[in-house]
Amino acid sequence: MKPIDVLAAFLKSYEAKDIDAIAALLADDVHLQDWNLEAHGKAAVLAETLKNFREAAQLQIRVRQFFEGHQCAAARLRIVVNNSVELEVVDTIELDLDGKVRSIRAYKG
User: pTM for the full model?
Assistant: First the structure.
């Protein structure tokens, strides 16, 4: 899959809270960083993702724009949590040579 397709699948899975689909996209040595946390390794990233899922009864992710580069992609997003908290976010991913997500970075604002 192209990086933009992997990012689209990741966002769709995240919105659906499909942890198994997310796990299938991640490399074992994935690194996650956002404005609140940092996690290294697939188990730690999945644990943080599950924590986010427990804290958000409802997630709505709307892609405003996609960007794609070599082995990487980014998206400008509008995320609504629990029908009340609205976030403007940019998510970026980098893929390893096997097409798995090795890096996820999220920027708020």
Answer: 0.94
